[in-house]
Design brief:
By secondary structure, this protein is mainly alpha-helical. It contains 17 helices and 12 strands. The chain has a single domain, classed as Serine Threonine Protein Phosphatase 5, Tetratricopeptide repeat (Alpha Horseshoe).
C-alpha cells in the first residue's frame, strides 16, 4: 500500500492541535498553505501513516468495563486519570485540560471533514479518478461515523430511543472550519447522524477488504449491526450481520494458532479482521503484569476450549490477557468477524429464532475448540439459547470496547442490568446500572473554549 501522508498530515495535525490548545492563537495558521492537491493527498490524510490516529480507538472504554482487574500495586502505579477511570470517579478529569479519548476522536473527525470538503470541488478527469473519489468519500464517512460512535459510547448516556431526544449528545462537527463554534446536539441527533454517515458510506465503499486499516462495505455493515443492537432493533441487526458475513472474511481456526507467543494473533495474518484499530495507550493497557483478567470470566471456559490457552498467560499477580487481535501490546478496538457472528446469533435469539442462532454459534465454536472436545450445541429453550449466546459473547470479545457497550444496552432492562463493583485497597467502588457516571466528563478545555454543557456526575 502506498501512503502519501507526508507534509499534509503533519501540518493538519499541528493545525488541529493548535486550534484545541488552551492558549489558542490570536492568528490562526493559514490552512491554504497546505491544501491537498490530489486524491492521493486526500487518501493520505485518511491513512495517516505518520501519527496513526485514524486507526486509534479508546483505551478508557476498555478500562471502564468489568473485564480487567488491577492489583493494588498496579492501581497505585497508574496515573490519576487511569485510576479515576477504573473506579468510575465522579471527579474524573477535574483539573485535566485534555483527554486523549476525546481529542484523538475529534482529530479523526477533523481529518474526515477535511477530506469530504476537499472532495466537493475536486474535478474528475477519468472513470478511474471517479471511482477513487467515491472510495475516498466512503472511507471518510466511515471514519467520521466510527469516531462519533466511540465518542457517543464514552461521553453520552446510554442510548434509548425513548429518552435520546432529551439527553445530551455530541458537538457534531460537519466542517473542517476550526473557528466554527458547535454546541452539543441531543443524543437522538447524534445517533441519527452516525447512521446517516454509515448508510451513505455503504453505497460508496468497496465490497471486499483491500487493506485492513481501511474500511470496506464489510466494515460499514458490521458497525451498522452493532448500532442496531444498541438501538434495540434486532431484526435490522440480523440483516446487517448476514450481509457482512456474506461479504466478509472467514473465521480463524484456533486449531492453527500457536498459543505460545505473547502476541498470538499478528494482524497481517488474521483473516477475521474487518477493520483494524487499536486503543490509545495507557499504562493499564497491554502486557502489564498487574492488569489481570476478571476471575469470573476464567471460570467460564470448558475443557478443550482453545481460547483458554491462547488468550491468557500466568503472571506473578494472576492471569493476564494476551489474545489481542491488534497484533500489538495495545488492545484491539476495531471490528472482526467473531463479533459479527455473535451479533447475529444474539439478534436471532432475541427474535425467536433460537435454532438458527445455534447454527451460527456452532460455526463459530467449531473454530474455537479442539475437535476432540467439540460437540454441536443443541437446545430448544429460547431463554437458555440466549443466555448461552451471551456467555459465549463474554468469553470471546473480552478486552474490547464491546463489553462496555453491552453493559450500557443490557442496563436498559431491569432484568438484565448489571451492577459493576471493584475493590481497591479494601475500598469498594460501584457503578449502578442507571448511574450518570456512564457518561464520562468532557475535557475542561473544550468546555471553556467551546462553551459546551458538561456532563453531570454523581
Amino acid at each position: 500500500m502506498k501512503l502519501t501522508i507526508n507534509k499534509y498530515v503533519i501540518a493538519f495535525s499541528l493545525l488541529f492541535s493548535l486550534g484545541a490548545c488552551a492558549e489558542f492563537l490570536d492568528e490562526k495558521p493559514d490552512i491554504s498553505l497546505v491544501v491537498p492537491t490530489s486524491l492521493d493527498d486526500l487518501q493520505g490524510l485518511l491513512d495517516d501513516s505518520v501519527l496513526r490516529r485514524m486507526n486509534t480507538g479508546s483505551g478508557a472504554i476498555v478500562i471502564s468495563a468489568d473485564d480487567i482487574i488491577l492489583s493494588d500495586v498496579g492501581f497505585a502505579a497508574r496515573t490519576l486519570m487511569e485510576r479515576q477511570v477504573y473506579t468510575w470517579d465522579k471527579d474524573l478529569l477535574q483539573g485535566t485540560p485534555n483527554f486523549p479519548d476525546w481529542s484523538i476522536s475529534y482529530q479523526q473527525i477533523f481529518n474526515a471533514n477535511l477530506v469530504l470538503n476537499g472532495l466537493e470541488n475536486f474535478e474528475i478527469n477519468s472513470a478511474e479518478e471517479g471511482l477513487k473519489k467515491q472510495r475516498i468519500k466512503g472511507r471518510a464517512l466511515f471514519y467520521r461515523a466510527m469516531a462519533y460512535h466511540n465518542l457517543m459510547e464514552l461521553f453520552c448516556l446510554p442510548y434509548n430511543p425513548s429518552t435520546a431526544p432529551q439527553n445530551l449528545g455530541l458537538p457534531l462537527r460537519k466542517s473542517n472550519n476550526i473557528n466554527l463554534q458547535v454546541t452539543r446536539s441531543n443524543l437522538e441527533e447524534t445517533f441519527q447522524f452516525i447512521l446517516k454517515d454509515l448508510n451513505e458510506s455503504v453505497e460508496l465503499l468497496p465490497d471486499a477488504i483491500d487493506v485492513v486499516t481501511r474500511p470496506s462495505k464489510v466494515s460499514a455493515f458490521a458497525l451498522l449491526t452493532r448500532l442496531s443492537m444498541i438501538e434495540g432493533d434486532f431484526e435490522m441487526a440480523s440483516e446487517y450481520a448476514r450481509t457482512a458475513i456474506s461479504l466478509g472474511n472467514e473465521l480463524k481456526d484456533y486449531n492453527t494458532v500457536n498459543a505460545a507467543p505473547i502476541i498470538p494473533f499478528p494482524f497481517t495474518s488474521n483473516q477475521e479482521l474487518i477493520f483494524h484499530q487499536s486503543a490509545s495507550f495507557y499504562g493499564t493497557i497491554g502486557f502489564s503484569p498487574e492488569t489481570m483478567v476478571n476471575p469470573v470470566i476464567l471460570e467460564m471456559y470448558e475443557e478443550g476450549d482453545l481460547r483458554r490457552n491462547i488468550f491468557f498467560r500466568q503472571t506473578p499477580s494472576g492471569i493476564s490477557f494476551k489474545g489481542n487481535y491488534s497484533g500489538q501490546i495495545t488492545w484491539f478496538t476495531g471490528l472482526a468477524m467473531d463479533e459479527v457472528y455473535l451479533n447475529l446469533a444474539e439478534s436471532l435469539a432475541r427474535t425467536g429464532r433460537g435454532q438458527e442462532a445455534l447454527d451460527y454459534m456452532n460455526i463459530l465454536l467449531e473454530k474455537r475448540f479442539n475437535p476432540n472436545f467439540f460437540n454441536q450445541i443443541e437446545n430448544t429453550d429460547e431463554e437458555e439459547i440466549l443466555q448461552f449466546v451471551l456467555n459465549e459473547r463474554r468469553k470471546t470479545l473480552l478486552f474490547r470496547p464491546v463489553r462496555w457497550m453491552d453493559l450500557r444496552r443490557f442496563n436498559q432492562s431491569a432484568a438484565s442490568a448489571i451492577v459493576l463493583s471493584r475493590q481497591v485497597g479494601g475500598e469498594v467502588f460501584t457503578l449502578s446500572p442507571n448511574s450518570l457516571n456512564f457518561a464520562l466528563p468532557i475535557p475542561e478545555n473544550d468546555i471553556e473554549l467551546g462553551g459546551l454543557i458538561q456532563n453531570k456526575r454523581e
